[in-house]
Amino acid sequence: MKKKRLIVAAGFTLALTIIFLSGCAQPVTLGGLIQGQQEGIWVNGVGKVTVVPDIASISLGIVSQESSVAAAQSKAAETMNRLMGTLNDHGIAEKDIQTQQFSISQVTRWDNEKNQEIVIGYRVSNIVVAKIRTLDKVGAIIDAVAVAGGDLTRINGISFSVDDPTVYHQEAREKAMAQAEVSAKQLASLGGVALGKPTYISESTYIPPPIIRVSAEAPAAPMPAPTPISPGEMEVSVNVQVVYAIEK
């Protein structure tokens, strides 16, 4: 009998402990939602700002293939130095040139007689990303790089961006919050309740960079006019999720 009483007492104490801890638990944020928050008006707002890019980033470099590693590397180094000099001559600072990829690999072919792959040469690839801050020079720089690198030249693509998007983020954020407030007021009116202050705000920012893919080989002679490149426009987008309280 005493043993049963002890078990019942222990169970009662454990139940009180669980109730106490449950009462002290705080709401936690999970996946953009607040667990435990049952009341409120949940809305999303999107703010978009159209921006003209002021920076072009070009992925370019050289690929050299020879019968030996030493020959391929020597030719690659000589050509790459010439290409880098061309970038510097066009006002691109060293801080705006970053190595993106460097590799030395075997070149093989399948030998049907030996029934195996055999090495026929070695390929050296050296690719950098050059950041161009004067967009009206992009076409001329592409042409100059193609001439400097000759048949080894590789230009893999161009992307455009904004050097300092802070001011555009602020403008898009204001539009997003204004849109969220309009939606919340309409929902409150339709629901016959009074709209309170925001109790939760979450933000996500997105800048989709426009990318132009190009493929260039060295021209036989210097081009009479620069390659036409248009940066166009891009969009800065801010998405907010806002929870408004319902006033009693």
What low-confidence regions span 5 or more consecutive residues with pLDDT below 50? 1-33, 211-223
Widest beta sheet: strand line-up:
5-6-4-7-9
The main pleated sheet reads as: 5 strands, antiparallel
Which superfamily, in CATH terms, is the homologous superfamily of one domain? Protein of unknown function (DUF541), domain 2
Written as H for each helix and E for each strand, in order along the chain, the element string is HEEEEHEEHEHEEE
Could you give the distance between the termini? 53 Å
CATH A-level architecture of one domain: 2-Layer Sandwich
Q: State the assembly state of the protein chains.
A: single chain
Q: Count of helical segments?
A: 4
Task: Walk me through the structure.
The chain is built from four helices and ten strands, in the order H-E-E-E-E-H-E-E-H-E-H-E-E-E. Helix 2 packs antiparallel against helix 3. With 248 residues, the chain is α+β, with helices and mostly antiparallel strands. A five-stranded antiparallel β-sheet has the order 5-6-4-7-9, covered by helices on one side. A three-stranded antiparallel β-sheet has the order 3-10-8. The chain has a two-stranded antiparallel sheet with strand order 1-2. The protein has a domain of 132 residues: Protein of unknown function (DUF541), domain 2 (Alpha-Beta Plaits). Helices cover 33% and strands 39% of the residues. The relative contact order is 0.22. Strand 5 and strand 6 form a beta hairpin.
Which terms would index this structure?
about 250 residues, alpha+beta, Alpha-Beta Plaits, five-stranded antiparallel beta sheet, three-stranded antiparallel beta sheet, disordered N terminus
